[in-house]
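Appendix B. Extra example for self-study. Work through it before the problem class; the solution is given directly after the inputs so you can check yourself.
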Amino acid sequence: MATPERLIEATRELLWERGYAGTSPKAILQRSGVGVGSMYHHFDGKAGLARAATERSAQELMDAAEAHFSGPGPATRRIASYLLRERDVLRGCPVGRLAMDYDVVENPRLRAPLDELFGWLRTRLADLVAEGRSAGEIDARLDPQAVGATLAAVVQGAYVTARSAESTEPFEAAVRGALQLIGYEEEC
Amino acid sequence: MATPERLIEATRELLWERGYAGTSPKAILQRSGVGVGSMYHHFDGKAGLARAATERSAQELMDAAEAHFSGPGPATRRIASYLLRERDVLRGCPVGRLAMDYDVVENPRLRAPLDELFGWLRTRLADLVAEGRSAGEIDARLDPQAVGATLAAVVQGAYVTARSAESTEPFEAAVRGALQLIGYEEEC
DNA sequence: GTCTATAAGTAGATAGAC
DNA sequence: GTCTATCTACTTATAGAC
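Solution. Structure tokens for the complete assembly:
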């Protein structure tokens, strides 16, 4: 693998595991096997590296979500497919966890990928809720934008409650409740 | 204020703002105006201080929530009262944010207050959903435990999406959606 | 209880040779 | 592009005097 690539991948892993404040350049160098000189040659320090890593993680999450959103079946089923998708629950969300990092939220260039991901996600979920409403699957009194924001929040918050309990159970319960609330009937 | 008290309050502020990894003993000393010797005399280092601070924050959140839960009115209204309560949205949750801190989740003594808070919260919300269901306010097909977990998650996740957008709007939308989903009709 | 001194290791780079 | 050397400040304490 090329040097910049190895640096980005090592940074993605560390940001996911430790967050921005908990990730040191030294740790990135050790995990990637790259030397100090190379790192500062290819990237503008820790912030530049984090920016590249976060952009890639956000893009991957959007691609993965879109695969569920544009899949087959009725709108509520595609929402369910996204909510029930396999996840490394106790690791949390590689992008969402950075929203609790002071240096990330305070730096517009680091916060941008987070804003883009969650803005897109809320919109996309709102579209599906609107579609489900038109199709009569979802209660017509519900506001698609609001419910889209709720569904995006449930996933992020479910990671918080699961990590606090060191168990996937709170995550699964939160998703189950969300699906019941939008009136999705589990098959089988 | 007494010395241990000042240390705990300074630690609470810093943990809320910066998280565990982002909070140094030095910063705690500066904010509290206490000296190094005093700090290590009263507490067992950074972890001990964080433990005391987190326990207090969790207790405060439980007390504040219980005031809404045991207030007057129907169950759904008490849930709404809790969800709509005044919050420093862009600061996030002082306890929930620590669930993304590696050193917190990995240390049973630091994770305990988080587990207690969110375990209690899910149970308490589930109780209210069950009560609302019995009273006919809430759809009888809903599972109280699952919906309780969903409501607890919505709040935590709403902080994530709001901080990512540097705006309270995503938080408010998520809460609005949650209230619509449990069938709460806003008055006025 | 509080203070000052001390200390090994890390954080986050920069400089300049190769 | 990569390496080694170097640097200032911070991290997380401990020791022992007052």
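Self-check: Residues 6 and 33 of chain A are 8 Å apart (CA to CA). If your reasoning did not lead you there, revisit section 3.
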